[in-house]
User: Fold this.
Amino acid sequence: MTQNRQIRLGAFLQATGHHIAAWLHPDAQADAGLNIGHYRELAQTAERGRFDAIFVADSPGSGYEADLATLARNGKTAKFEPVTLWAALSQVTSHVGFVATASTTYEDPYTLARKFASLDWISGGRAAWNVVTTGQDVSANFGRDRHPEHALRYERAEEFLAIVKSLWDSYEDDAFVRDRASGIYIDTDKFHQIDHAGKHFTVRGALNIGRPPQGYPVIVQAGASESGRTLAASTAEVIFTANLTLEDAQSFYADIKGRLPRFGRTPDQLLIMPGIFPVLGGTEAEAEANYEYLQSFVHEDIAWDILQKRYAGVDLSGYSLDDIAPPPPQDTNGNKSRLQLVSDYVERERPTLRQLYRTLSTARGHRTVVGTPEQVADAIQLWFENGAADGFNIMPPVLPTGLTDFVDQVVPILQRRGLFRTEYEGTTLRENLGLHRPANSHALDRTSVARESVA
Ligand SMILES: Cc1cc2nc3c(=O)[nH]c(=O)nc-3n(C[C@H](O)[C@H](O)[C@H](O)COP(=O)(O)O)c2cc1C
Assistant:
């Protein structure tokens, strides 16, 4: 019997929770960002809920150097470097996957390939890389004059990714023979050095670690501009995305899946997972009250900071929060797709600036669902069954309670409806996501050469 198509679930974690003021909520642990015990509990809760993976976003900088008043109230600044964090948590879990964000604009391909190969070995094949080009200008942290242009960042990302995959193929899967009788440790026919000289990088050499257990860690991507979609369609296996309406999510889903054949890929090789910010309550009224309580923690300085980020270069000082939001700027060198999402929202809903910041303070433009566990499960099922999603990134408003409540209250409903697993299918992240394990490109080359010489 073939199993019904199953929802994929990721837990998108921010230390105290996704709401902008989560750290002020009494359910949050104010020191969560630097509290490994807190993350251990989250990882184990996600695994108890049979989540495919847990995920942290990242940028290599605070971004608030010029704005100390906002930095002072920002509860999201202190955090662990993702690969380090996941390596530790892989030792107290056995099945949940680990998606770590790392930047192709600010990291180096060799070091990154090595780190993610290590995480894949240490976790027993549960690593994934969220490939980001970094929208935020953190150039000064790296002694650079300026943040590269959007198009250049994506061009660099493409080259970066190709190098990293070649490095992961430095050794074929069976290269480490470790034969004590002959004294041969490595079959050097199965060792491959790369010799890459491209526009952005020159890398000659090989990794000093065996091929990752998954072949390659799972490749995740989260850009949704034209260049972001092209990169995703050609290389990503999971896409994280933000959509506010079913129609937008359906159009994104159809667009991305439609691009795959151009790259010789099939729709099941790429899973699309929009974010969802669930505010739960025993009744609808209780959920609404929980939502209002969360929003009550937003300080006015933070409200203006949220708005100003979306109106870069526009002077909002003459506006009050009760004024109708003006159209956001036409373009940005940062996150183009998120600017488009906000512009579409402003045009469609004609919100006041207060309504706009309240929409963004929950999940920055991801879908917010306020309701009972049944209603949240309905909202998930609706998008899953109507061509909008293969799974979801659950964005708990406040942690740890937001994740525990979802696992205890919503997951059992999805399981009862036959939409979500009750046990893990495999031990690696690829097995659980239903993604194939990529062959080593050099081994493939050798097979085709052998075939040619026989023919
Ligand atoms: C769910 C989600 C998570 C993201 N996480 C990160 C992140 O951790 N770091 C980052 O620099 N960008 C992150 N982004 C932004 C994208 O990776 C991308 O850089 C951004 O959307 C700009 O690209 P675009 O102009 O192609 O949309 C995230 C986007 C989404 C939807």
